[in-house]
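@channel sequence for tomorrow's demo:
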Amino acid sequence: MSEQSAPSPTPAVEPSIDPSGPLPEEIAGALKRDAAGLVAAIIQQHDTHEVLMLGWMDDEALHRTMTTGRVTFYSRSRQEYWRKGDTSGHVQFVKSVALDCDGDALLVRVDQVGAACHTGTRTCFDGRGFTVVTGSPDQETTQSL
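structure tokens (generated this afternoon):
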């Protein structure tokens, strides 16, 4: 996470979104893009809160996502836009989009139809967990390094 705080869009104000125009100034100005001009987009099922996948968006992909009701990503490997589900049928219908406190990640809540992962699993994290030592609030909070 970034140490610097970024201005974030005011929740009480609904930005006007022109489907044919760029991102609203208050959103574009709040985004912290990587060197390639991209922002990580965490995709979450709106009703179950499952984290489905992570994709990348530039301003145009975010604009398309916010104005069409369908999630659009920017493919870093193919260097092109792709709308989730156009070839697989596993569509993501947008329910909401939020920017994190640092401006460097988006949370896109969706209604996922079918598998979210290109491997055919419900999420890109299914069956890929690691064995870890779990913690709890009852544990000691300081440890020697």
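heads up for whoever presents: Residues 20 and 67 are 9 Å apart (CA to CA).
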